[in-house]
Amino acid sequence: MHFFETQHLTKAFGGLIAVNDVSFQVEKAEIHGLIGPNGSGKTTVFNLINGYYPITSGTILFEGKELNSLPTWKICKLGIGRTFQVVKPLRRMTVLDNVMASAFNLTTKRDVAKEKALEILEFCELSKKQDYEAKGLTIGDRKRLEIARALATGPRLLLLDETMAGLTPQEQAEGVKLIRKIRDSGITIIIVEHIMQVIMNICDRILCINYGQEIARGTPVEVANNREVIEAYLGKE
Amino acid sequence: MKSSHWSKLSVVLLLAVFPIIVPSDYYRHIFIMALMWVVIGSSWNLLAGYTGQISFGHAAFFGVGAYTAGLCVTKLHISAWWGMLLAGPVSMLVAFLIGCVCFRLRGPYFNLATLAIAEIFRLTAIVWRDLTDGMQGILIMRTFRNKAYYYYLALILAAACIYAIYRVMRSKWGYYFVAIREDQDAAESMGISAFRYKTFSLLISSFFTGLAGAFYMNYMGFIDPEVVFSLYFISIMAILVAIIGGAGTIWGPAVGAFIMVLLQETFRSSFFGIFPKWVSEAHALAFGLLVIFVIRYMTNGIVGDWVKVQRLWSKNKEQPLASTGS
Asked: Are the C-beta atoms of A13 and A55 separated by less than 8 Å?
């Protein structure tokens, strides 16, 4: 049994098949990359995993449990957290309240939630900004908040959707450190990312899709040297 | 911080001794109405200001509460005071059914659905004469002649309502409500069942609104569908009370209730008889102007934008605007 896997995952929007027969497996405490050119269906895969879209066909298994047709919030309760590519800060709440709202996933006690939230903010190096309203954060901090909020729900699998996009190189380096730290704490990660430096650096294995279909899989080096992958990104000679 | 505590305490004390200082039934009546509106405005605020589900149909709960108390007398032949016990649960039951329908919709569609449902209740109450006596309304004997009793009952209701909402907003539910208001999709991915918590918010909101309705029946002694199910006098008024005071704040609707009731009464009485009678027709106009002013210059209401209000008085216009939060 794999920690997480999709079997023949398919999603059609009317006549457009956004995700076509994608099967991949993720093992515990792994960082698994999901790459592909713009519009290749990466975020759609995430939206299927976390129940935002209903699945057209195929199966998603998490710790042997089928996730198909569960609502988003139940999938979160089962232990899958996610961040959004277009960040969704709870704008008129403070950073601390954002994370506390998430931390209530595991407890009903305010004190416990607050303690957990403070711990997570420390972990994500957002402690200094805990009293800021979320709408006042820079994009880098918003992405961090997005991760902190996902972590506060207590996930065993974390879906990171382009958490590095739009960040400065220095912020990216810090982001990579943070992602490694999350993995070292025992959380499995599936990451969608465009920035190759980042993805090649931190992933154990990578699945590359284009037009919703798998075109390559393997270690970062294998994928980077795959002809189809290079063609998909750079075009044919 | 300290001084604001003292000012709040003095307001509470003043409200507690008000009927002792003021023997006039007229002013007592105005304050009773204001306190009742504190309850309705705060309830609306829980659902709309905090949970982000803007209802145009709170008259449905108010009316159901009022008719629950009224029907206790006309159908069950028991005291209308039993309505104070029954109105909450009955309103919650009605709210649950409404929620099942309306919470499938988001944004403007939700707003319109609540509006339509409240109108259905009003029309049903008019037409279903066997149950409600239609436009004839329900007339009961009032229990007390002395308005002080009603005043204190209204005060207790208002205090209980505000305290309950305060407690809820500090709990897990409160965090979940605001999370749903800010971004429903993000909330769902944080493990929050938006439907479930919106329903909880609606249930609490409808409970207190129904209670206010039952109180109205007991206090006024007369109701008819056009009054208690009124779109303008109940549903819209609830919105105005909360928005002018400050939606998404604990004390906003309370402040808004007193402002709106006093303003309404000032116009209704043509500025207590100073101006000619036609002035009383202008109260809708005054409300309109007030709403435009508040929305334009104090988006968060008087309490929510208190810093801005203070700036109007203070000489130091340079002082920066601090963020007040919710």
From this structure: no
Strands in A205-210's sheet, in edge-to-edge order, are A80-82, A157-161, A188-192, A31-35, A205-210, A213-218
- A23, A6 contact by CB (below 8 A): yes
Smallest CA–CA distance, residue B244 to chain A, in Å, is: 19
For B291-311, write each residue's pLDDT tens digit: 899 888 888 999 988 888 888
- For B67, half-sphere exposure in the C-beta direction (CA atoms, 13 angstrom radius) is 29
Which residues of A, range 72-131, sit inside 8 Å of B by Cβ?
72-74, 76-77, 81-82, 84, 88-94, 97, 100-102, 104-105, 107-108, 110, 113
Residue environment code for A151-165, b if the CB has 16+ CB neighbours within 10 A, otherwise e: bbbbbbbbbbbbbbb
Q: What is the pLDDT of residues A90-133, one digit of tens each?
A: 999 999 999 999 999 999 999 999 999 999 999 999 999 999 99
Of how many residues is chain B composed? 326
How many Å apart are CA B208 and CA A172, to the nearest integer? 51
What ipTM was assigned to the predicted interfaces of this complex? 0.93
The CA dihedral of B129, B131, B136, B140, to the nearest 10 degrees, is 170
Closest CA to A61 of A89, A30, A23, A33: A23
Q: Which residue of A has its CA nearest to B182?
A: A90
For residue B182, list chain A residues with Cβ-Cβ distance below 8 A: 89-93
Positions of chain B with pLDDT under 70: 1-2, 315-326
User: How many domains are there within chain A?
Assistant: 1
Rounded CA-CA distance B222/A101 in Å is: 45
CA distance B160 to B14: 17
- Structure token digits, residue B316: 């130091």
Instruction: Provide the whole-model pTM.
Output: 0.93
Residue A119 belongs to domain spanning: 4-234
Judged by CB atoms closer than 8 Å, whether chains meet at A50 and B189 is answered as yes
Q: What is the CATH number of the domain that holds A165?
A: 3.40.50.300
Residues 6+ apart with CB under 8 A from A195: A164, A165, A172
pLDDT of residue B7: 84
The residues with which B134 forms a beta bridge, in sequence order, are none
A31-35 and A188-192 as β-strands: parallel, antiparallel, unpaired?
parallel
What is the bridge-based pairing of β-strands A205-210 and A213-218? Answer: antiparallel
Q: Does B299 touch chain A (CB under 8 A)?
A: no
Question: Could you report the per-residue pLDDT of A11-21, keeping only the tens digit for each?
Answer: 999 999 999 99
Q: Does A50 touch chain B (CB under 8 A)?
A: yes
